[in-house]
Amino acid sequence: MWPVCKKELRQFFSGLTGYLAIGAFLVVNGLALFVFNDNLFDYGYATLDPFFALAPWVLLFLIPAITMRSFADDFRTGTYEILQAQPISPFRIILGKYLAALIVVIIALIPTALYSITIDQLAADQTIDAGATLGAYIGLILLAGVFAAISIYCSSLTPNAVAVFLLAALGCATIHYGAQAISQLPVVAGSLDYYIDMAGIEFHYRSIRRGLIDSRDLIYFLSLITAFLLLTLRNLLRRR
Predict the structure, then answer these.
(1) For residue 158, which of 9, 35, 46, 234 sits 20 to 30 Å off, Cα-Cα?
(2) Rounded to whole angstroms, what are the CA distances from 184 to 84, 194, 201?
(3) What is d(CA 173, CA 58) in angstroms, rounded to the nearest whole number?
(4) What is the three-state SS of the chain?
(5) Count of the separate structural domains present in the chain
(6) Single pTM value for the model
(7) Residue 76 backbone phi and psi in degrees, to 5
(8) Could you read off the pLDDT of 52-66 as tens digits, one per residue?
């Protein structure tokens, strides 16, 4: 598992693509939070809520860009057959690629801690809520874990990396915001809207963003991650 993880990380950072992807993530968030209209300075109090509301949208594109070549390139170049010949199970191969993607996302998130430090230092009287901020970061990492699992699954479907990117971005957006969008339809208002909203990622992500780590939210995220990794395993076993 770890050799696969190190291979993926080495491949991702071997060229400019990896650094450009992380740089684009940081630049987009930085501009939206500190430069454009309705930036953090307009709120009048220390908060990172706009960042945690915006970050999922940026991750919808960052994570598929990170993972779109995970299995697609192996299928296209024939290196997956070489991986199969190694003394490592398909599930360990999946875990290695998944952990590599997650590590890249965490590397991209680490510099955003400067946002918290900056806002805390600039606050006139009220400092930033450290507990809520930490909880929101945990929620963001769990959300990234689900997006990575979905994207790895999409990469196991086709050797076309562009198709993988589009499928993964669409899949992540649908699972994240689909239930919330359906719950706002007039036909389900006042009856099933709450339960439909609860089925989506955004509901549980909002819950953790408040700084409350509920076991139900953790189980939800871990279940989704496990489900998509198992679906990826099924695809790989079919190829054998």
Answers:
(1) 9
(2) 47, 9, 15
(3) 11
(4) CHHHHHHHHHHHCCCHHHHHHHHHHHHHHHHHHHCCCCCHHHCCCCCCHHHHHHHHHHHHHHHHHHHCCCCHHHHHHCHHHHHHHCCCCHHHHHHHHHHHHHHHHHHHHHHHHHHHHHHHHHCCCCCCCHHHHHHHHHHHHHHHHHHHHHHHHHHCCCCCHHHHHHHHHHHHHHHHHHHHHHHCCHHHCCCCHHHHHHCCHHHHHHHHHCCCCCHHHHHHHHHHHHHHHHHHHHHHHHHC
(5) 1
(6) 0.89
(7) -70, -40
(8) 888 888 899 889 988
Distance CA 197, CA 201 (A): 9
Question: Over the stretch 8-19, which tens digit does the pLDDT of each residue have?
Answer: 888 888 877 778
Which amino acid would we find at residue 112? Answer: T
Closest CA to 145 of 204, 102, 182: 102
Structural domain of 37: 2-239
Q: What gap in Å lies between CA 137 and CA 115, rounded to an integer?
A: 12
